[in-house]
Amino acid sequence: MYALGAAAVAAVVWAAVRLREAPPSPPPSTPVTPEDRARERARERARGALQGVANRSHALMPPGFEALWLAMPVEDLRRLRPRASPAQGMDTHLEETTEEGARVVYLTTPPGIVTQVQFLSRLTSTEELLPHFQALRARYGEPTGFWDCPEAPDRSPVRRITWRREHASVMEAILVYAGRVSVTLVVAATGDVASALARSQCRPVTRQSLDAWPVAQELRGRQTPLTPTMR
Which residues pair with 177 in a beta bridge? Predict the structure, then answer.
């Protein structure tokens, strides 16, 4: 019995020693550098400035893209749109081509926030302009502005149609050239839309000039091959 009692005491002592031992140390974490903190602060500032835009932009995205929003992190964009990849020669752009042949361009800020989405496609003829516009009006309501943007060394003349909202807006740029029509639908912050109109020196279209559609005699600026689609 003595031997049995000694064994029991030894077991109790061993258990007590084990309890007093320090728990195993967690694996070392990757140190956070000042550059990491600066990037995170820049990301938060950009996201905060676009919060109002983010709350409103869901409803402005075209069908099939309703899950996207402005100010979303690029990581979320890649998860939702796995076909999006860096645009050639543009560090802050991602792009993809849809099954219908339209090209989608995502503009981002260096901290990794989506600030603008552009949908580029082509109508097969000028006769499709009216039904195309009617579809846009059914989607977004009556336009808040029609604009003619003149030709410049780096761009062709286009007509733009805007649907202005409080935080995020929609703008359609329509380029007519040699009987073909290229259209670019842009979802962006309202301030960015206004800045784009100012940079391109766009002027409001009057009732008298509404039918005088600008037609490009030559293509200027960066051109992208597009498959004719009807959105």
Answer: 180, 216
Task: For residue 11, give both structure tokens.
Answer: 């077991």
Structure tokens at 86: 């860096």
Write out the two tokens for 115.
Answer: 């600030």
The residue extents of the domains of the chain are 34-204
Its pTM stands at 0.73
Structure tokens at 154: 């780096």
Q: What sign does the dihedral 152-225-98-141 (CA atoms) show?
A: positive
- The end-to-end CA distance of the chain, in Å, is 91
Sheet-wide strand order for 145-149 = 85-86, 93-97, 103-109, 113-123, 180-189, 168-177, 158-163, 145-149, 203-204
Q: Tens digit of pLDDT for each residue in 117-133? A: 999 999 988 899 999 99
Cβ proximity of 149 and 161 under 8 Å: no
- Tell whether domain 34-204 is in CATH 3.40.1000: yes
Distance CA 182, CA 186 (A): 13
